[in-house]
């Protein structure tokens, strides 16, 4: 089974905002699974419950985990209209690995495709 990597913003000014964005990632996983018919992964949907993005070592660990997971995926789908620094790193990695990238807005509709 192939994997779809979900890329969406996590950062926010408050912990509550971060957790709200993590919850949105779960919704985006559902959209991606319906659209592409395979398993969708979004490490930022659960890592905020395990690691603190404000602690540099923990943020680095989370980003490294995401990059390794992305390398196992057959596509990357970007949700939302804001590209965070973490998302920019994931998009750049996908480009470097030759992984197709799809852009969707928050409702899961096509905005653009690469």
UniProtKB/TrEMBL annotation:
**Domain of life where this protein originates:** Bacteria
Q: Offer one Pfam family short name for this entry.
A: DUF7768
**Which positions fall inside the DUF7768 domain?**
3-103
The protein's name is: DUF4406 domain-containing protein
Q: Which organism is it from?
A: Oscillibacter valericigenes
């Amino acid at each position: 089974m192939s994997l779809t990597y979900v890329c969406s913003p996590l950062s926010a000014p408050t912990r509550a905002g971060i957790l709200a964005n993590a919850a949105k990632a779960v919704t985006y996983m559902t959209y991606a699974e319906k659209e592409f018919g395979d398993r969708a992964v979004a490490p930022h949907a659960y890592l905020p419950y395990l690691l603190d993005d404000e602690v540099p070592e923990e943020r680095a660990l989370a980003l490294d985990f995401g990059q390794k997971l992305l390398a196992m995926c057959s596509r990357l789908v970007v949700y939302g209209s804001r590209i965070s620094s973490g998302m920019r790193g994931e998009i750049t990695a996908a480009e470097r690995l030759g992984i197709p990238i799809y852009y969707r807005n928050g409702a899961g509709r096509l905005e653009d495709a690469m």
